[in-house]
Design brief:
The structure holds 2 protein chains of 2 kinds.
Chain A: H1 27-31, H2 38-42, E1 51-52, E2 55-56, E3 58-59, H3 70-83, H4 93-113, E4 121-124, H5 127-139, E5 148-151, H6 161-170, E6 173-176, H7 187-193, E7 198-204, H8 216-225, E8 229-233, H9 245-248, E9 252-256, E10 267-271, H10 273-278, E11 289-292, E12 297-299, H11 313-329, H12 331-350, E13 355-358, E14 367-372, H13 377-386, E15 389-390, E16 392-394, H14 399-405, E17 410-414, H15 421-438
Parallel strand pairs in A: 3-15, 5-6, 5-7, 7-8, 8-9
Antiparallel strand pairs in A: 1-2, 4-10, 9-10, 11-12, 13-14, 14-17, 16-17
Chain B: H1 3-6, H2 9-16, E1 29-36, E2 41-50, E3 53-62, H3 65-78, H4 83-97, H5 104-109, H6 126-140
Antiparallel strand pairs in B: 1-2, 2-3
Helix pairs in contact in B: 2-3, 3-6, 4-6
């Protein structure tokens, strides 16, 4: 375990320490905890009430987007049917209910992240929207030639392209942390990349291709030691491990609702309030203003000054329902379950002759990227689809990483709380079927650099 | 739907033993690169035209079995044809992979490429099958080294 992120308070009950969320966990977390029984949980997800190609659906694409429990769908429907109105403007009853529900959703996110104040929670469209906001509204006015932005070559495009752009615009330089041969980000490599010239450190918490966890708390300490800020892409970690922004001491943290059982169209940007106060709005227009004259305007307080226009109201309410669903099971339990399944799958696949698994040997979170002999990932995916198994095939919006692996694409299986050992077994059997189908002609490994293989 | 129908022997054979794989150099050679950014498939098609004829056609690329076998079939088929004939074949191919009816003569004219008819039962794979043919269309339009982004919807 290379990660030094603090574990959520496992010694509960007890006085909450700073940075631990013991003091403000919701009732559902303490009193209504549900055991993590994937087969039982699947009954909460209407999508599993069907067959694909005549077989029960095995959904192994949650890293792309997660399925939705009925609690989320019903919360959104209920809002549309009974309470729907715009927020923050009108004074009629429905507007009051909608505003209250929207701000309660913000409070749920604050609690989920262990943030100090709801003013630190900005609702955006998705992770990409959050990261562009940081790059343009925080970084751009503060960077210049000679400044450095530290990234890794494993980043999802969402945490690469906004920095490429801001570097072009300001003359700042991108510096990449060198991963290990098995594609992990170590503390030593972070120490080497961060220098007094570093102004921004932007890292994925969990890689969407290798499933490796980056030592975020360490990176935050190093960044702060040189006066830089740290931006965390938590798109792949928020769904399945306990997050605590105060204990990690990160400046910015971004994730999407749809990968953690919530709806599409809503993302979160956590930012320390001092940063939000010092930033100009990213977009301007309705909702986010204080006073407007024909030639000038002033802004509302954070977080509202970063939420121009009508926000995703029902989506925020859906996200809250998703958070409460996750909390009722417990993020610790979800993490343990997902890590166990993922490592099981990685090992089983690596033991299949002709299959190459990319990334670290152990401690994998949620995703397993692999290839089957010389068979292209799309062809693998089509055969698995005929077995009722949904996986991702392609470059996973991480093209520089594919280049490093020396392959055009990989197959990616990703796991969540509704998956179980049977799904892993179905995947392995499906991969055997792929090999059978295409014959032993394709038994050699895919060409390229296999340093990342198990 | 049948996977055997999608991956017929002839398709696998073109993938394993691609016809017309390679590059062309020299004056009068047009190179068209086409990518599918959503999945990473890519092809570079080389065409040397002599008068109105596609005197030589070669391709290099990387992608799934459907996209690469389609490139092999297309290149072998259109080499030696006139631009008008090649364009008519491309139109016929787009109809084929959408499952639209073709008369027997047109089917025969498509040669090995008819094996990709089964793709119409796998709509998400249509863009794989059409990548090379879209590159051909660009080459015929003399789009130079233009790079395009097929959206998966075959041209009408």
């Amino acid at each position: 375990m290379t990660d030094d992120r603090p574990r959520a308070a496992s010694g509960r009950p007890g006085p909450p320490r700073r940075g631990e969320r013991g003091g403000d966990r919701p009732m559902t977390d303490r009193n209504a905890r549900r055991p993590l029984v994937p087969k039982a949980l699947r009954a909460d997800f209407p999508i599993f009430d069907q067959t694909i190609a005549g077989k029960p659906l095995v959904y192994l694409d949650s890293a792309a987007t997660a399925q939705k429990p009925r609690a989320v769908l019903e919360a959104m429907t209920r809002f549309y049917e009974r309470d729907y109105a715009n927020v923050h403007r009108a004074v009629h009853t429905l507007a009051g209910r909608a505003t209250e529900a929207y701000e309660e959703a913000r409070e749920a996110v604050r609690r989920f992240l262990g943030a100090r104040s709801a003013a630190e929670i900005v609702f955006t469209r998705n992770t990409t929207g959050s990261l562009n906001l940081v790059a343009q509204a925080y970084a751009r006015p503060r960077l210049g030639p000679g400044d450095e932005i530290v990234l890794t070559p494993l980043e999802h495009h969402a945490n690469l392209l906004p920095w490429q752009r801001v570097a072009r615009e300001t003359g700042a330089r991108l510096v990449f942390i060198e991963p290990t041969d098995d594609l992990r980000i170590t503390e030593a490599a972070i120490d080497q990349a961060i220098t007094p010239r570093t102004k921004i450190v932007a890292l994925a918490h969990v890689s969407n291709v290798t499933g490796a966890v980056a030592p975020i708390a360490h990176a935050a300490r190093r960044a702060h030691a040189v006066g830089a800020v740290i931006v965390v892409d938590a798109a792949q970690s928020a769904p399945h491990l306990p997050l605590d922004v105060r204990a990690l001491d990160v400046d910015f943290l971004a994730f999407s609702g749809h990968k953690m059982l919530g709806p599409t169209g809503i993302g979160v940007l956590y930012a320390k309030e001092e940063h939000l106060r010092s930033m100009e709005p990213y977009e301007v227009g309705g909702e986010m203003i204080d006073r407007v004259t024909l030639f000038d305007a002033t802004w509302r307080e954070p977080p509202w000054k970063f939420e121009a226009g009508t926000p995703p109201i029902a989506e925020a309410i859906g996200l809250r329902a998703a958070i409460e669903y996750l909390e009722a099971i417990g993020m610790d339990a979800i993490e343990a379950h997902v890590v166990r399944l993922t490592n099981l799958a990685a090992e089983a696949l690596a033991n299949e002759p002709g299959v190459v698994v990319y990334g670290p040997r152990t401690d994998r979170h949620a995703v397993v990227a692999f290839n089957v002999g010389r068979i292209h990932a799309h062809d693998v995916s089509t055969i698995l689809d005929a077995e009722g198994i949904a996986v991702r095939a392609g470059h996973h919006c991480a093209q520089p990483l594919m280049t490093r692996l020396g392959v055009p694409a990989t197959v990616r299986a990703s796991f969540y709380l509704y998956n179980d050992e049977d799904d892993v077994e179905r995947l392995v059997v499906g991969v055997r079927r792929v090999k059978e189908f295409f014959g032993d002609v394709f038994g050699e490994p895919v060409p390229g650099d296999h340093r990342g293989s198990l | 739907m049948s996977l055997e129908n999608l991956y017929r022997e002839i398709i696998v054979d073109h993938y394993k033993h691609p016809r017309k794989r390679g590059t062309l150099e020299g004056s009068g050679v047009l190179a068209v690169e086409l990518k599918n950014p959503s999945c990473g498939d890519r092809i570079t098609l080389y065409v040397r035209r002599e008068d109105d004829r596609l005197a030589a056609v070669r391709f290099v690329g990387e992608g799934c079995m459907i996209s690469m076998s389609s490139a092999s079939m297309m290149s072998a088929l259109v080499e030696g044809k006139t631009a008008d004939e090649a364009e008519a074949l491309a139109r016929a191919f787009f109809r084929l992979v959408q499952g639209k009816p073709l008369d027997r003569a047109t089917e025969e004219a498509l040669g090995d490429a008819v094996a990709l008819q089964g793709v119409h039962q796998f709509p998400v794979r249509i863009k794989c099958a059409t990548l090379a043919w879209k590159a051909l269309e660009l080459a015929l339009a003399e789009g130079g080294a233009a790079a395009g982004s097929p959206d998966g919807t075959p041209a009408p």
